Amino acid sequence: MILLKQEHVKLIKRKVIGMHILDGLLYKVIMYLLLMILGFVFVYPLLYMLSTSLMSNIDLVDNTINWIPSKLDFTNYRLVIRALNIPKSYFTSILIVGVSTLSVAIASAFIGYGLARFSFKGKKLVFAVMIFTFIMPKVLFFIPTYQVYTTLRIKGTILAIILPALTGQGLQGPFFILIFYQFFKMIPKALEEAAIIDGAGPVKIFYKIGIPMAIPAFIINFVYGFALYWNETFILGAYLDGKIRTVTMLLSNLQNSYWQIIGNVGDPSRSPNLNFTEAKLFAGTILSILPLMIMYIIVQRWFIESIDKSGITGE
Amino acid sequence: MKRRNHLYGLLFISPWIIGFLAFVAYPLYRTIYFSFHTVRYSGELGYLYDFVGIENYKRILTIEADFVIELQNYIVKTLLYVPVIIALSIIIAILLNSKLKGTAFFRLIFFLPIIILNGELMKNMRNYGGMDLEVGGIIHSIINRIVPESIIPLFIELFAMVSELLWYCGVPILIFLAALQKIDKSLYEAAEIDGASFWNIFWKITLPIIYPLISVVIVYVVVFLANFDANPINSIIRSSRTDPSRREGYASALSIIYAFAQTALIGVLFFITRRREKGGIN
What we know:
The structure holds two protein chains of two kinds.
Chain A: H1 2-17, H2 25-53, H3 57-61, H4 75-83, H5 88-117, H6 123-135, H7 139-152, H8 159-166, H9 173-185, H10 189-197, H11 202-213, H12 215-231, H13 234-240, H14 247-252, H15 254-265, H16 278-310
Helix pairs in contact in A: 2-16, 4-15, 4-16, 5-8, 5-9, 5-12, 9-12, 12-16
Chain B: H1 2-35, E1 37-42, E2 46-51, H2 55-63, H3 66-97, H4 103-110, H5 112-116, H6 119-127, H7 137-146, H8 152-167, H9 170-182, H10 185-193, H11 198-227, H12 232-242, H13 247-279
Antiparallel strand pairs in B: 1-2
């Protein structure tokens, strides 16, 4: 009798805890629970922003309303779209950020190829300097650069952003160079030698063999670089000098631009829903990251695939 | 052939050399130069520099307190944040690396900050209640079951902190996850057959393999927090540059002190993790 009971206990134990630790039910439940809790804590602010951005100002002060607005109110979005000058500012941002990202990609591919496929004196020094520039805060270089731009009269033009990008000194420049370096390093030596025997020069080998090998590096560069430039307000704000504004920059000035456009819409003292509140700010924040979200959803499969191929950890 | 190789190598990296000279070496020299001068601007003469010695540094460190306070905050914050970010990232990376269904969805979510995180987003989420858990209704009753009433404010504090830190974990998770995916699965199977517990496997296999990457993550996180647009030090330096009583000279001195502090911070954190490596978890 007792033996039988023990047998039962063992069976139940096996079902719950599993043969190995890694496939038991208990283990799975704990893992899912942890993932859900962390995921919830992480997503919470985004959901909160989304739900608040759909509330009217009356809902906002109503204590009985916590998460679900009494009715979906798109006034916030309608007003903030005008204050942020959407869609025009979207196009400006995409243009500025896109051109900068493209410049970074071209430069990083070149430089990464030079470092990966050729031996020359001082290569170690180049790597050391790249690590140094990566570690140093960006504020260390921007004051004199700003002066030079003023003197050369390219401050406030797109050139001020593109020039550093084209020379491998854009935002997180060393990172992108190293990504390309990783991929070019993987080209088999034999392939290169065969091309040399066929009479191809280094430049031809670069774009006939090198570029196709580095497609994942380009994907990482386009996606991550685009996001970096889109999110940057300090460097872009300083060099573009308020003459060109991306959506993220406009967002940091939302309250002012909101009051400027509200005069044409109505009187905030009569209709309280027109007052500037965090609901408007949240609507603006969501609008400013919306293009990135859409891009992320579309490209995430290739992006993650490329990261898997890159061996990013070799950094 | 060797010589040509050499030349082509230099040709390919020549953009970087130009960029380094124009956007790193020269500005660095100028920043150091500025920091010992007071900079003025006049319409006709352009920029004028008056040598003041270490006056700017003296003012920053001994007279005006705004930067020093923020610098202290930054250092303390970083020292507190880095271990938590690393721990959270490792836990999430292990969870995402498990054979559970639905990890692809969670990976999509946790990688989100790699794409959408910026200073404005973080400020707006943090400063306007986005991270304050609204303890009401269902959530309240759930929490109340677990913890006594008096701990709830502490719990909300913790929630807000973890929520913010999770947003900084995007790239660290990515780095750890990439390392975990490279670990040979047979290693785990062998350990399981030998009857090793999950706990043992973590300490004896997983951690030693991903340990070297902790240094990489430290550098990344410290640099990220330093350059993050929501970091008040960056706005102090930016506004000092145009402040008539401070101007470029003062701002340059600020950025140099900042660079030193940041490098020291990385050095210290690096040193701590290095020593433990030798101490031998292995």
